[in-house]
């Protein structure tokens, strides 16, 4: 099992450019999540997908869109990147399991917007 | 809104000592908590969880204590090793949703040899 994988690992964008961050999990998990992590701060939820076919906004969704392509894949798109979106982005997944809510994280994508 | 917070941003200990990392939460409706470890350049890694109907839960070298009266959570690491150096986050289920975790800002644990 590769777990949760993310591509790319690093990316530099100019203001106004667009890009899609890819995430895939091979654990047959139902729920998937996108977070951003800024220096000195905890993880903030951008969007999540409780199950295949559904997506919902999290705490900081502005400037982002997501697609739950299938059960395995959940992508995050920046349509017009801004310097404020410079961050480390983490994808996570969670199995459907009663009474357990832990999420499993990917290695992250480090994005710089100049 | 309510959020999870941490008492200490940094903690430095000697190898072999026990470490205690604290977390305060303000949402009295939270019923599930998780501790994560994040090493430099990596994603958070699940350590241990606890439900609100428990006071204590033990894992391998780690113990989580929950005090609902004062809304306080702690992670104890026994015989701390250099490999334990990382940022530790507590997280809670937020807003009545079973799908979303709210994370604290983290505590940096440094283990000195």
3D architecture notes:
The complex is a heterodimer of chains A (114) and B (113). With 114 residues, chain A is mostly beta strands. Chain A is 0% helix and 49% strand. In chain A, 36% of the residues are buried. Helices cover 0% and strands 53% of the residues of chain B. Chain B is built from no helices and eleven strands. The N and C termini of chain B lie far apart (41 Å). Chain B is an all-beta fold. The chains are: A mainly beta (114), B mainly beta (113).
Largest sheet of chain B: 6 strands, mixed
Helix/strand structural class of chain A: mainly beta
Terminal Cα separation of chain A, in Å?
Answer: 36 Å
Secondary-structure element series of chain B: EEEEEEEEEEE
Assign the structural class of chain B, choosing from mainly alpha, mainly beta, alpha/beta, alpha+beta, or little secondary structure. mainly beta
Estimate what percentage of residues of chain B fall within beta strands: over 45%
Radius of gyration of chain A: 13 Å
What is the chains' assembly state? Answer: heterodimer
User: How many helices of chain B in DSSP terms?
Assistant: 0
Largest sheet of chain A: 7 strands, mixed
Q: Which regions of chain A contain 5 or more consecutive residues with pLDDT less than 50?
A: none
């Amino acid at each position: 099992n590769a777990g949760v994988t993310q591509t790319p690992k690093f990316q530099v964008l100019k203001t106004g450019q667009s890009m899609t961050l890819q995430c895939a999990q091979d654990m047959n998990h139902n729920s998937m999540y996108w977070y951003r992590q800024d220096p000195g701060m905890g993880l903030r939820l951008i969007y999540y997908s409780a199950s295949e076919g559904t997506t919902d906004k999290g705490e900081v969704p502005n400037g982002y869109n997501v697609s739950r392509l299938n059960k395995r894949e959940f992508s995050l798109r920046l349509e017009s990147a801004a310097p404020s979106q410079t961050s480390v982005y983490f994808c996570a997944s969670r199995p459907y399991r009663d009474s357990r809510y832990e999420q499993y994280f990917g290695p992250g994508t480090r994005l710089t917007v100049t | 809104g309510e959020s999870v917070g941490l008492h200490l941003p940094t903690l430095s200990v000697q190898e072999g000592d026990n470490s205690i990392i604290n977390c305060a939460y303000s949402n009295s409706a939270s019923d599930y908590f998780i501790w994560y470890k994040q090493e430099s350049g990596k994603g958070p890694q699940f350590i241990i969880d606890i439900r609100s109907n428990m006071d204590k839960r033990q894992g391998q070298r780690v113990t989580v204590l929950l005090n609902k009266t004062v809304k306080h959570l702690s992670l104890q690491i026994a015989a701390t090793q250099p490999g334990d150096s990382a940022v530790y986050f507590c997280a809670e289920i937020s807003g009545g949703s079973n799908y979303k975790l709210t994370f604290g800002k983290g505590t940096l644990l440094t283990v000195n040899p």
